[in-house]
Write a structure and sequence with these properties.
single chain, 454 residues, alpha+beta, Creatine Kinase, Chain A, domain 2, 9-stranded antiparallel β-sheet, two-stranded antiparallel ribbon, 17 strands
Length: 454
């Protein structure tokens, strides 16, 4: 750990964290992350950090299950758990969205058990405090002014910077949630292949997991308004990364990209220093006004990498970022979807063949189109729903080849059943929500807090 605080000396030092992520396929793990909104059951309103029924007291109540406080300025702003007790962390997004970052696990059956335990814990402690949890990609009817802000210094820095770069960045921070899965690679070439496949197919995941048609109590005209928000957040650090598809992708190319992404902050002596907009290259040269003549260390670099938000992010693993927040079932479905595609060599090869002729212009158009029309999107005469069916079949074959069974003899394929149901009906969760809002709920979103509880 000490070596992480040694000054970066060369580009090789910047590449090293990616190389250190390489694992033998037999050691590949699955890290699943998901967020949900916390609300007061009696008022259906968001929950502040402080107060008898506040977010901090929810975190403190969860400590009885072996979680330990993560502190900032004396506040419990997250929880962590020893590996012997299951591992993982529970953290807070800017407006108190509760996130479970799961431990690195071997299969989706373990992911299900981890999520089931988490849901049981938060449901019990939340109920004691009068709190519920909503599985949706956006706050359906909370105004921006109603949203609290958690006492994490980095969020205040981001809040101040976001409006300088896009019109919807604050909505991303305070009114959205997502599901993500982190997956491993064995080499640079394996990373490149998985990066290309997952980035090209990220719009398919957006369409399948669309679950955010509302904002401010009304329909937005989008299946995934959360995905649309990302198109107007900050062009410096978001999007489809054209360089990934140019034939020369490498760890070094990603480093070159990340060096150009402006920084948000530097962490020193327990404090976040606002350096928003400054170049990491300037930092490398010792030219930051905030830290004159000081150069970054690997921890600074790794922190910077967490502030980059493309549809797929490279760290010491690949992070899939294209899905809306949603139900308990959708969390396992997302992880199984990508594991089936990327962790079986046959499915990965077939997926690569499927996307190899896609060009970046098509993919950028597709990203915009699926945010609006979801599975009903048609690009260049190609129906997205038909591509999604092919991709789901490849994922299913990959999971079948893995042949990892639970105690009932079920393979990981069972976790794809919600996606099969979506494609059989041709209706995503957003399509169902739009129909209910227009026909069943009389345009009243109160029922959403009952039917879409996590």
């Amino acid at each position: 750990m000490k070596n992480n605080f040694i000054e970066i000396q060369s580009k090789e030092d910047l590449i090293k964290p990616f190389q250190n992520g390489e694992k033998k396929p037999s050691d590949f793990k699955i890290g699943t992350e998901h967020e949900k909104f916390v609300f007061h059951i009696d008022t259906l309103k968001p929950v502040p950090f402080l107060g008898e029924s506040g977010i901090e007291n929810l975190l403190l109540a969860l400590k009885k299950y072996g979680w330990e406080s993560i502190l900032e300025d004396g506040n419990t702003i997250g929880l962590s758990r020893d590996k012997s007790l299951g591992g993982g962390t529970i953290t807070l997004e800017p407006a108190g969205q509760l996130e479970l970052s799961g431990a690195p696990l071997t299969n989706i059956h373990e992911t299900f058990n981890e999520l089931d335990e988490h849901r049981s814990q938060i449901s019990k402690e939340g109920s004691n405090l009068g709190l519920g949890f909503l599985g949706a990609g956006l706050t359906p009817d909370w105004s921006f002014d109603e949203m609290p802000i958690m006492p994490k210094s980095r969020y205040q820095i981001m809040k101040n910077y976001m409006p300088k770069k896009g019109n919807l960045g604050l909505d991303m921070m305070f009114r959205s949630t997502t599901i993500q899965v982190n997956l491993d690679y064995s080499s640079e070439s394996d990373m490149i292949k998985k990066f290309k496949v997952s980035l090209a197919l990220q719009p398919i995941a957006t369409a399948l997991f669309a679950n955010s048609p509302f904002l401010d109590g009304n329909l937005t005209g989008y299946n995934s308004f959360r995905s649309h928000i990302w198109t107007d957040t900050d062009p410096d650090r978001t999007g489809m990364l054209p360089f990934v598809f140019d034939g020369e992708m490498s760890y070094e190319k990603y480093v070159d990209y990340a060096l150009k992404v402006p920084m948000y902050f530097i962490y020193r002596d327990g404090n976040y220093l606002d350096v928003s907009g400054s170049s990491f290259e300037d930092f490398l040269n010792g030219d930051l006004d905030e830290l004159p003549n000081e150069k970054p260390n690997i921890i600074d670099w790794e922190n910077h990498l967490t502030t980059i938000f493309p549809e797929v992010r490279l760290k010491s693993f690949l992070e899939m970022r294209g899905a809306d927040g949603g139900s308990f079932e959708s969390v396992c479905a997302l992880s199984s979807f990508w594991v089936g595609l990327l962790y079986d060599s046959e499915s990965l090869d077939s997926s690569f063949d499927l996307i190899k002729d896609f060009n970046i212009k098509q993919l950028q158009e597709l990203r915009i189109e699926v945010a609006k029309n979801g599975l009903h999107s048609i690009i260049g005469g190609i129906e997205i729903q038909e591509i999604a069916k092919k991709v789901l079949m490849l994922s299913r074959e990959g999971l079948r080849n893995r042949n990892i069974l639970n105690e009932n003899g079920d393979s990981e394929e069972i976790f794809l059943d919600p996606l099969q149901k979506i494609l059989s009906s041709g209706k995503s969760s957003s399509d169902d929500l739009i129909q209910k809002f227009s026909n069943n709920w009389n345009k009243n979103l109160v029922n959403m807090y009952k039917e879409y509880t996590f």
